[in-house]
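Propose amino acids for all 714 sites.
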C-alpha cells in the first residue's frame, strides 16, 4: 500500500547516518539541554514502484535526488515488514536542504507492501492527507511537465488568499499511487527569516540561527539561491532578446562550421598532406573533431552547472578560436599535427553547445516560445555546416585552405566578445563545503567516461587502416570496454553523477537511442556524399557548397515546423518522422547513379536530410530540458549534445570499416561508398524500429492504466 509516515530524528540517528555519510545536512535547532525539543525530520512515502514515483517527484515536480540510501536494520520489529533492507531515495531541493530551510521526502519501496488503491472518496479521508510543495511561479510549468509525462491526473486548481496575504494559486495532483500532492505558488522560502513572514514561529522555542548536524553552526556556504533566482533574466526588449538569441545560436553555427570546413575540401587536404584519397586517413579530419565534441561535453555541462553557464559559454568561443588559428599553421607540419589540432578544436564546441542550450533552457518557461527558440538554435546546424564549407572552398579556390581557418578564428573570437556583452548573467546554486570538488564534479566519472569513449572511437577509426591486424587494436578495444564498465559502476554510486541514471526514464532512453541512430546515419551520409560528388561527378568544393545549400533553407523550415508541432504530436511520432527522414536520405544516396541530373535524387536527399536533423534535435532537447530541474540544465543539454556529436564520429568509424572492406583495395570506390550508405540506411531503420517499439510500449501502458482505473486501483 502506498502510504505516508512521519518519522522523527530518532529514525535517522538509529540508521547510523552521520555527517560524513549524508550528503545533505538536515538541520537541527539549538535548544537548552533540559528543554524537550521536537521537530518533523522527514516524510516517508511508500511507493508501489520506485521508478514510477521517481518519475513523478523528480521528472515531474522537479525535486533533486539528494541521496540514494538503503535503510537497514530490524525493520520487522519497527514496521512489520519481512525485509531487513529498504531501498529508497532522499528527495528535496538541494539548495534549501543544505541551508536548513526545507524538509525532505524519503521515497521507499517495501517489497511486501500491499498493493491497494489509496485514491480516497469524497469527502476527504482522515489520517495523513497530502504533501505540499512550494513552487513559486512554477505551477504552470510543473503541470505542463506532468501532462507530458502522463502523470498527476487531472489537476484541481484554485486561486485565493488568506487574510492580508498575497493572492496565491494552489493545485492538487496525484502521485503514481494516488496520494494527494499540493502545489503552492506562495513565495519560495529560502531563509528562516522569510519563513517567519509567512509562518510565524514561537521564538521562545526556536533560536534564530540554523545549525548543522551535531549542533554546530553551518556558515560555510554562500547565500542560498532559490529556483527562481537560478533563472536567467533574458533581455526584456525585443531587439535585446533577438541579439541574445542570435549570439547563442552562433555557438551552433560555428560548431557545425568546424565540421563543414574540412569535409568540403577533403581532396584538397589529402593532396596538401600527401595522403591522396585514402579514406581511412581522411576520415580522421572530421572524426577527430566530432570525437572530442561528443566526449568532453560530458564534463562541460557539469562545469557550467557549478561555475556558471555564461563563463563556460564565453570560454568555448575563445578556445575554439585559438585552436582554429593554430590548425591553419598545420599545413607544413603534417596530418598528425593537423588531427591533434582538430581534436583540440572540438573541446570548444563541447563547452559551447551544452552551456548555450542550458542558457536558453533557463531563460524560457516550457511552452511555444521556448520551443521556437530551441528550433532556431537547431536550425543553424545545416546553415553552419554549409557556411563552414563555403568559407573553406572560397579560401582554397582563391588563395589556400588555411585562409578559411584564419577567417573562422576571427569570427569565433568576435562571437566571444559579443557573448560577454549580450548574454545575461547565469546564477549558480550556492556553494557548499560538505563535498569536495572531486565529488561535485564527479571527476572519476569524467575520466573513465571520456577514456572509454575516446578509446572505443579511436579503435573504430583506426581499425580500417590497420585491417584489424594489429594487436594494439584489440588491446585498446578491451581497455575501452573496461573503462565503460568502471564508468557505470562509479555513476551508480556517485553522489553527483554525470548521468543521473535514475532520471533516465523509458521515453528519454528511446529518444536518446533514436537520436544516436539518426545522427550516426547522418555522419555517413554527409561524409560520403561530399566524396561522391567530388570524386565521381567532378564537382569542385565551391560548386559542391552551392549544390548542398538547399539544406540550409530546408533545415530552417524543418526546425520551425518542429517547434509548431511539438505541442500537438507525441514525442514518438516526432522522432519517427525524424528517423524516416534520415533513412530516406540515405536510401536516395545509396541508389543514386553516377550520371544523373542533380534534381533527381541528390537534390531530394539534400532537402530531406535536414528534416531528420531538425525534428530530432529540438524534440530531444525540449523533452530532457522540461524533465530536468533548473540547476541541472547543463546535464540534460550534455546528454543530447554528447549523443549527437559522438554518433557522428561513430558513424564515420563504422562507415570507414564497411567502405574499406568493400572497395577492393581502393579499386572500386563506388562499391565502398554504397556499402557505407547502406550501413546508414540500417542505422536509420533501427531508429524507426525503436520508435515503433516504444509506441507499442506506451500503448500497452495506457491500456494497463485504463484497466486499473476501471477496477478502482488508480
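Proposal:
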Amino acid at each position: 500500500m502506498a502510504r505516508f509516515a512521519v518519522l522523527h530524528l530518532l529514525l535517522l540517528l538509529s540508521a547510523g547516518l552521520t555527517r560524513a555519510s549524508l550528503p545533505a545536512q538536515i538541520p537541527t535547532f539549538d535548544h537548552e539541554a533540559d528543554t524537550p525539543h521536537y521537530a518533523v525530520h522527514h516524510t516517508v512515502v511508500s511507493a508501489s514502484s520506485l521508478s514510477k514515483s521517481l518519475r513523478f517527484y523528480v521528472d515531474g515536480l522537479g525535486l533533486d535526488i539528494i541521496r540514494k540510501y538503503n535503510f537497514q536494520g530490524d525493520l520487522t520489529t519497527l514496521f512489520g515488514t519481512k525485509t531487513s533492507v529498504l531501498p529508497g531515495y532522499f528527495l528535496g531541493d538541494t539548495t534549501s536542504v543544505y541551508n536548513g530551510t526545507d524538509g525532505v521526502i524519503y521515497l521507499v519501496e517495501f517489497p511486501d507492501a500491499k498493493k491497494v488503491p489509496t485514491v480516497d472518496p469524497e469527502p476527504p479521508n482522515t489520517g495523513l492527507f497530502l504533501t505540499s510543495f512550494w513552487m513559486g511561479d512554477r505551477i504552470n510549468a510543473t503541470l505542463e511537465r506532468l501532462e507530458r509525462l502522463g502523470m498527476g491526473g487531472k489537476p484541481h486548481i484554485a486561486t485565493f488568499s488568506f487574510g492580508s496575504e498575497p493572492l496565491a494559486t494552489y493545485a492538487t495532483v496525484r502521485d503514481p499511487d494516488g496520494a494527494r500532492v499540493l502545489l503552492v505558488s506562495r513565495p519560495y522560502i529560502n531563509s528562516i527569516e522569510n519563513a517567519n513572514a509567512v509562518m510565524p514561529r514561537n521564538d521562545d522555542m526556536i533560536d534564530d540561527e540554523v545549525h548543522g548536524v551535531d549542533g554546530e553552526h553551518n556558515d560555510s556556504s554562500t547565500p542560498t539561491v532559490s529556483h527562481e533566482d537560478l533563472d536567467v533574466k533574458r533581455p526584456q526588449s525585443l531587439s535585446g532578446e533577438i541579439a541574445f538569441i542570435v549570439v547563442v545560436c552562433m555557438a551552433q553555427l560555428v560548431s557545425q562550421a568546424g565540421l563543414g570546413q574540412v569535409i568540403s575540401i577533403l581532396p584538397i587536404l589529402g593532396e596538401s598532406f600527401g595522403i591522396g584519397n585514402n579514406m581511412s586517413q581522411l576520415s580522421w579530419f572530421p572524426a577527430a573533431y566530432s570525437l572530442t565534441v561528443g566526449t568532453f561535453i560530458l564534463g562541460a555541462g557539469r562545469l557550467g552547472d557549478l561555475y556558471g553557464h555564461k563563463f563556460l559559454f564565453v570560454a568555448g568561443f575563445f578556445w575554439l578560436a585559438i585552436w582554429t588559428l593554430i590548425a591553419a599553421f598545420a599545413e607544413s607540419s603534417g596530418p598528425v599535427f593537423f588531427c591533434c589540432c582538430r581534436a583540440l578544436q572540438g573541446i570548444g564546441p563541447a563547452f559551447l553547445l551544452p552551456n548555450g542550450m542550458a542558457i536558453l533552457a533557463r531563460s524560457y518557461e516550457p511552452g511555444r516560445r521556448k520551443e521556437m527558440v530551441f528550433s532556431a538554435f537547431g536550425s543553424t546546424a545545416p546553415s553552419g555546416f554549409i557556411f563552414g564549407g563555403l568559407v573553406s572552398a572560397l579560401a582554397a579556390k582563391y588563395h589556400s585552405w588555411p585562409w578559411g581557418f584564419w577567417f573562422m578564428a576571427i569570427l569565433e573570437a568576435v562571437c566571444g566578445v559579443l557573448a560577454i556583452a549580450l548574454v545575461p548573467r547565469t546564477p549558480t546554486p550556492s556553494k557548499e563545503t560538505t563535498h569536495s570538488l572531486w565529488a561535485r564534479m564527479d571527476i572519476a566519472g569524467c575520466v573513465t567516461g571520456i577514456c572509454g569513449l575516446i578509446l572505443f572511437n579511436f579503435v573504430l577509426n583506426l581499425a580500417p587502416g590497420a585491417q584489424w591486424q594489429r594487436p594494439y587494436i584489440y588491446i585498446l578495444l578491451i581497455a575501452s570496454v573496461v573503462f565503460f564498465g568502471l564508468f557505470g559502476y562509479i555513476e551508480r554510486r556517485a553522489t553527483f553523477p554525470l548521468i543521473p541514471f535514475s532520471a533516465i526514464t523509458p521515453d528519454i532512453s528511446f529518444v536518446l537511442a533514436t537520436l544516436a541512430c539518426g545522427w550516426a546515419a547522418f555522419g555517413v551520409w554527409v561524409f560520403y556524399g561530399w566524396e561522391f560528388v567530388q570524386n565521381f561527378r567532378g564537382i569542385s568544393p565551391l560548386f559542391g557548397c552551392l549544390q548542398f545549400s538547399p539544406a540550409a533553407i530546408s533545415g530552417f523550415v524543418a526546425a520551425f515546423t518542429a517547434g509548431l508541432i511539438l505541442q500537438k504530436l507525441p514525442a514518438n511520432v516526432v522522432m519517427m518522422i525524424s528517423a524516416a527522414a534520415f533513412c530516406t536520405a540515405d536510401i536516395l544516396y545509396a541508389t543514386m547513379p553516377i550520371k544523373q541530373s542533380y534534381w533527381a535524387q541528390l537534390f531530394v536527399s539534400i532537402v530531406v536530410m535536414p528534416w531528420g536533423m531538425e525534428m530530432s534535435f529540438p524534440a530531444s532537447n525540449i523533452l530532457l530540458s522540461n524533465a530536468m530541474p533548473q540547476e541541472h540544465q547543463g546535464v540534460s543539454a550534455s546528454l543530447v549534445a554528447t549523443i549527437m556529436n559522438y554518433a557522428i564520429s561513430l558513424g564515420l568509424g563504422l562507415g570507414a570499416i564497411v567502405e574499406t572492406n568493400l572497395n577492393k583495395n581502393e579499386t572500386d570506390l563506388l562499391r565502398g561508398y554504397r556499402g557505407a550508405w547502406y550501413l546508414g540506411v540500417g542505422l536509420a531503420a533501427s531508429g524507426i524500429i525503436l520508435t515503433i517499439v516504444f509506441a507499442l510500449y506506451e500503448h500497452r501502458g495506457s491500456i494497463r492504466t485504463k484497466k486499473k482505473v476501471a477496477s478502482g486501483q488508480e
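Confidence is low (pLDDT under 50) at residues 1-38, 187-230. The chain has two domains: 3-30+37-190, 238-442+494-699.
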